[in-house]
Write a structure and sequence with these properties.
The protein is an alpha+beta fold and about 700 residues long. The protein folds into four domains: about 160 residues, Glutaredoxin (3-Layer(aba) Sandwich); about 350 residues, Glycosyltransferase; about 80 residues, no CATH class; about 80 residues, Glutaredoxin (3-Layer(aba) Sandwich), CATH 3.40.30. It is about 50% helix and about 10% strand. It contains 26 helices and 25 strands. A five-stranded mixed sheet has the order 1-3-2-4-5, sandwiched between helices. A hairpin with a 5-residue loop joins strand 4 and strand 5. The relative contact order is 0.08.
Length: about 700
């Protein structure tokens, strides 16, 4: 790369709200944000658009920026040949979805970030890839050579490019719309068959699912489906027990690996090896939400303290590191610091010994696999071997090795971690992407609200409520959401996933607090979703609202990716709200949604785990629980605690306080529900059949177990 000899003046991206775009504000590339100015320039000058999509915590995005976009010669070539547009995929998931699909089609299913796509001036893609190096390597062409070739082809074979781009745009449109069901029907048998197929693909040694040769992402939604299927089939079969064992195997190995931050808590984005040891180090808010939630579910089911501890540590990490002063949650913590990935998180043995002293340090290094051999090479010092901490043995085994009780070992380890964490805090930390995304905050609100109930920790519920207030006050205008807020500025629109995830969070907040304001706002937002996103012809929900800018495709898709699809989350919202409010119209919309996507889901169930969780709810039926009593009374709290401690994935929960009738939501679940002999009572119904009311946690536990 040719180094710049003088500071580069700020380009248009200096005005962007996105930290990712601002990272490119001093490139010599003449970057534009996506918008009318850039698109008009491409049409006026008859140039292709080079569309570069990434995100702030993306390691390879940083690499390509350093190698190519900061090079004045490469930038001059780009500026001469193209209109260059930079997009933050987290701000514009609509563009990311469309052009990632084009990338996947052109590259036989291979995609990722940075995403590099060339478009005609009418926005149709004609060439796409991901990272391109400065010199040909990794089987990839040089970025400079590629730009030159594309510019030449654009001049010499324009008609051919236009024809192929139009065909590709048609293929993208078709692939992102629901396909006919062909008589397919979504049943519990389909749910169980999908769970069996997914379980059969799990690694039986370390758990999880391998992708891309050796990578493993936390399979939160897949594990949710396995738990649901296994627990519903209470037949004691070996296969049912095996599904449970696969989930526990995965959760245990993840908690011991380097993908989990052993010092500070929180989960990294994915592991680069099958043993969960060496991660890509970025920490995404959505991962903290989804992973903490599956640990909470596993704790409810198994009562194993490990799962409660990991869930608590993840939630504590979020509150300590990603909690914005105004109440919302930041998007991510980067992987890189000081120009090197993982530098903040990795250790030499000498560093540990210096902090902990020889005796304690050697024991810690032995327990957490910090050795001279190392597991990580720092890009700035590739000959020096550093280690990613991982737990080689569980606490019980370590305690036996050291001849001390588990409680004492835990205290020693906690004290050592505090010292190392303090030492790590003196390093240069990776940057935080401090934009606040409605979708990811909704996921986090839901997990915190549920965590506060399961772990009996009110601070999590308070934090969930604070985030909800922030979003509703700062990112909601006349009943419509906006996706992103940062530094007092917001984007112009929101997408289906923003609404759906926030609605889910508000429902969870209601079931944690029974403050009707949360349920009322969920209902209001749900009306907006139906009015603005519902596909009146085909069923299901579009990703963009009716008033959104025209793009080459308006997608209506059900595939879950790193986050659940908007249709998957909204299906569950419709089902839960229908059960809570006794609303038959919402249930009919849910049934129509399942019918719309039945063909896609049956053809590719491993791409729609969260959607199948909704099918499990719909076909298995909800467990409807009504509690009557003063929530401040210990007797009422004891009944609620029993509910919160029980694994009931398809539960809906309401409370009626006879002393505060104005706060009670109008619902068939609460009609005719009264105290029993003056005592707080619980009413449990399944499949339209209600059990007699009970007043003790033991009797309630018996009913919930059936």
């Amino acid at each position: 790369m040719t180094a710049t000899t003088s500071p580069v003046p700020a380009n248009r991206l200096a005005r962007a709200t996105s930290p990712y775009l601002q990272q490119h504000a001093h490139h010599p590339v003449d970057w534009h944000e996506w918008g009318a100015e850039a698109l008009a320039k491409a049409r006026r000058e008859d140039k292709p658009i080079f569309l570069s999509i990434g995100y702030s915590a993306c390691h390879w995005c940083h690499v390509m920026a350093r190698e190519s976009f900061e090079d004045p010669q490469v930038a001059a070539l780009m500026n001469d040949l193209f209109v260059n547009v930079k997009v933050d995929r987290e701000e514009r998931p609509d563009l990311d979805e469309i052009y990632m699909q084009a990338t996947l089609i052109l590259n036989e299913g291979q995609g990722g970030w940075p995403m590099s796509v060339w478009l005609t001036p009418d926005l149709c893609p004609f060439f796409a890839g991901t990272y391109f190096p400065p010199a040909a390597s990794y089987g990839r062409p040089s970025f400079r050579e590629l730009c030159t070739k594309i510019g030449l082809v654009w001049q010499q074979r324009r008609d051919e490019i236009a024809e192929q781009a139009g065909q590709l745009a048609d293929a993208v449109r078709q692939s992102l719309l629901a396909r006919p069901a062909d008589g397919a029907e979504l049943t519990l048998a389909v749910v169980d068959e999908a769970a069996e197929k997914i379980g059969a693909a799990f690694d039986e040694t370390s758990g999880g699912l391998v992708s891309g040769g050796s990578n493993k992402f936390p399979p939160s939604m897949a594990m949710d489906l396995l738990l649901r299927s296994a627990v519903r089939r209470m037949d004691g079969s070996a296969r049912r027990l095996q599904l449970l064992a696969l989930v526990e195997l995965t959760l245990t190995h993840m908690s011991q690996g380097g993908i989990y931050d052993q010092l500070g808590g929180g989960i990294h984005r994915y592991s680069t090896d099958v043993e969960w040891h060496v991660p890509h180090f970025e920490k995404m808010l959505y991962d903290q939400a989804l992973v903490s939630r599956i640990y909470l579910d596993a704790f409810q089911l198994t009562k194993k303290p490990l799962y409660a501890r990991i869930a608590r540590e993840i939630l504590d990490y979020v509150l300590a590191d990603l909690h914005a002063p105004g109440g919302g949650f930041y998007s991510s913590r980067d992987a890189d610091s000081e120009g090197s990935e993982g530098r903040y998180y990795t250790w030499f043995p000498s560093e540990v010994l210096e902090v902990l002293g020889p005796e304690c340090g050697e024991k810690f290094c032995a327990s957490y696999d910090i050795s001279p051999i190392g597991s990580w090479r720092d890009a700035r010092d590739p000959d020096a071997a550093k280690s990613v901490p991982r737990l080689l043995r569980d606490e019980e085994c370590c305690a036996r090795m050291h001849g001390i009780p588990v409680e004492e070992l835990h205290q020693r380890v906690s004290h050592a971690k505090e010292k190392l964490l303090a030492a790590r805090a003196r390093r240069v930390p990776p940057a935080v992407d401090d934009k606040i995304l409605c979708e990811w905050n909704g996921l986090m609100i839901a997990s915190l609200a549920r965590g506060g109930c399961v772990l009996a920790e009110p601070k999590y519920i308070r934090a969930a409520g604070g985030a909800a207030v922030f979003i509703l006050e700062n990112q909601c205008r006349q009943g419509r959401l906006v996706r992103c807020a940062r530094d007092g500025r917001t984007t112009e629109t929101a997408f289906l996933s923003d609404y759906a995830c926030l609605i889910e969070g508000l429902i969870e907040l209601y079931e944690a607090t029974f403050e009707r304001r949360w349920l009322d706002r969920a209902v209001e937002l749900n009306r907006t979703v139906i009015a603005q996103f519902w596909d009146r012809d085909g069923g299901g929900f579009y990703f963009t609202p009716d008033h959104h800018e025209p793009l080459i495709a308006r997608t209506n898709d059900v595939r879950d990716n790193a986050t659940p699809s908007g249709n998957s989350v909204q299906l569950m919202n419709l089902l839960r709200l229908a059960a809570l409010l006794g609303d038959g119209e919402l249930r009919a919309l849910a049934d129509r949604t399942m019918s719309t996507f039945a063909g896609d889901v049956t053809r590719s169930p491993w791409s729609s785990e969260r959607f199948l969780a909704g099918v499990d709810f719909a076909r298995g039926g909800p467990v409807e629980i009504a509690i009557v009593g003063d929530p401040s009374q210990p007797e009422t709290q004891a009944l609620l605690k029993q509910v919160y401690q029980t694994y009931l994935p398809n539960r809906v929960l309401m409370l009626h306080d006879p002393a505060r009738p104005a706060d009670t939501v109008a619902s068939p679940l609460l009609e005719g529900r009264t105290l029993v002999a003056g005592q707080p009572a619980a009413y449990v119904c399944r499949n339209s059949t209600c059990r007699p009311p009970v007043t003790t946690p033991a009797d309630l536990a018996e009913q919930l177990a059936r």
